[in-house]
Amino acid sequence: MGLLENLGFVFVAGFITALATGVGALPFFFFDDISDRGNVVLWGLSSGIMVSASVFGLIEEGLAEGTPPQILAGMAVGVVLVVVAHDVLMDADIDPREYEEADFKKLVLILGILTVHSFPEGIAVGVSFADLGLEGGTQILGFTVPVLAIFMTIAISIHNVPEGTAISIPLKAMGVSKWKMVWWAVFSSLPQPIGAVIAFAFVRVARELLPYGFGFAAGAMIYLVLSEFIPEALEIGDRLPNGGKPELVAGIVLGVAVMVPLAFV
């Protein structure tokens, strides 16, 4: 397969992860609300999945390609870039309830903020496809797909479902229609296929930087879990007994339990 075909395949994989965010809005087709307890568990689930994918997927593969200092350097760069990007956009933080009422300039700003939050997942998908078309993978639609790429695509897709739910909760309170909630949930993850294509193209051209790429994606995702997902869960759980910590831990354990078996398939 040529470069354009490979880029298209990686884009589709990234777009699948974005579509999975829309799945998070589907519970509102059947239920009017999701409890704080359930919301905390979902954030914990998402956190457990991202950390597991980072450790058992990206870091492990990175160590097979490079050295621990290279992985650590990549992780440091990933954290720094997310911190800097977040600080630049911090004063323009966006509530999902503003999606429906945004004009063009506001939508551009929203997309920029969403990019900070979801671009690392796209990069994780992209670097996992570094060996696309090479020996040792699984045949899918005529492409030889690395097992790591399948693992990361599944992991990010599962992780995106509770994110879609979290985005849909305030939209539901606004009275936004169900299908529009699905659309806005998917919209929030549109930077992922773009990030996947950019990361894949980069590591294919500069193969020697692949260990840094794995570290970058892992560092950015783990930092997002520690700086945003867990604090968000604890803020919601503040109204629950024990601050929602048991529910958060249960969600994290469940997320790890879901992903660890996939890592050894």
Quick rundown:
Keywords: Membrane, Transmembrane, Transmembrane helix. This protein has 265 residues and is mostly helical.
Protein topology:
Elements: H1 3-23, H2 36-65, H3 68-89, H4 104-128, E1 138-140, E2 143-145, H5 147-174, H6 178-187, H7 191-205, H8 210-237, H9 245-263
Antiparallel strand pairs: 1-2
- Counted by DSSP, the helix tally is 9
Distance between the termini: 26 Å
Helix/strand/pairing category: mainly alpha
Low-confidence sequence ranges: none
Assign a percent range to the helix content. Answer: over 70%
How many β-strand stretches? 2
Q: Major sheet: order of its strands?
A: 1-2
Name the shape in a single word: globular
Beta strand %: under 5%
Q: State Rg.
A: 18 Å
- Compute the number of structural domains: 1
Query: Please, what is the average pLDDT?
Result: 84
| Element-level helix/strand string | HHHHEEHHHHH
Largest sheet: 2 strands, antiparallel
GO molecular function, one term: zinc ion transmembrane transporter activity
Membrane topology: Multi-pass membrane protein
Subcellular location: Membrane
Organism: Natronobacterium haloterrestre
